[in-house]
């Protein structure tokens, strides 16, 4: 075990478990500061978790929207191809009719 100042130890003092480093004991004010800091960080974690959930839901919405746009694009391409085939067919009919008229 290390004894540097960043390591916290659990030790007994008068049958009370204390948190701290035996070389640098914590007083009650420091422990309260640590508890407050832990609570603040817990709140930050909860806020970030909520934000992450919101972003994940937003991402799913975007993915669904992209899928709808892709389906729409495929339908429009199919419609375009059908119209193009109709135009080609009509063009062939017109060319044949003109050929018969001028023949």
Which strands sit side by side, in order, in the main sheet? 1-2
Stretches with pLDDT under 50, minimum 5 residues: 1-7
Structural class: mainly alpha
Radius of gyration: 37 Å
The whole-number mean of residue pLDDT values reads: 82
Beta-strand fraction estimate: 5-15%
How many domains? The number is 1
The number of strands is 2
Instruction: Count up the helices.
Output: 1
Outline, from the CA principal axes?
Answer: rod-shaped
Q: Cα distance, first to last residue?
A: 107 Å
User: Could you give the order of the helices and strands?
Assistant: EEH
* Helical proportion, percent range: over 70%
Question: Biggest β-sheet, characterized?
Answer: 2 strands, antiparallel
Describe this structure in words.
By secondary structure, the protein is mainly alpha-helical. The protein has one domain. The protein contains one helix and two strands. A two-stranded antiparallel sheet has the order 1-2.
List the helices and strands and how they pair.
Blueprint: E1 9-13, E2 16-20, H1 28-102
Antiparallel strand pairs: 1-2
A few lines on this structure:
The chain has 103 residues and is mainly alpha-helical. The chain has one domain (9-102).
Key phrases:
single chain, 103 residues, mainly alpha, two-stranded antiparallel sheet, 1 helix, 2 strands, disordered N terminus
């Amino acid at each position: 075990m290390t004894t540097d100042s960043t390591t916290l130890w659990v030790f007994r003092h008068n049958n009370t478990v204390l948190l701290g480093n035996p070389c640098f004991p914590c007083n009650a004010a420091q422990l309260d500061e640590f508890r407050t800091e832990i609570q603040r960080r817990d709140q930050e974690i909860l806020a970030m978790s909520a934000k992450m959930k919101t972003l994940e839901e937003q991402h799913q919405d975007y993915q669904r929207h992209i899928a709808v746009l892709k389906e729409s694009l495929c339908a429009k391409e199919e419609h375009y191809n059908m119209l193009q085939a109709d135009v080609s067919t009509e063009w062939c009919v017109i060319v044949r009719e003109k050929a018969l008229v001028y023949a």
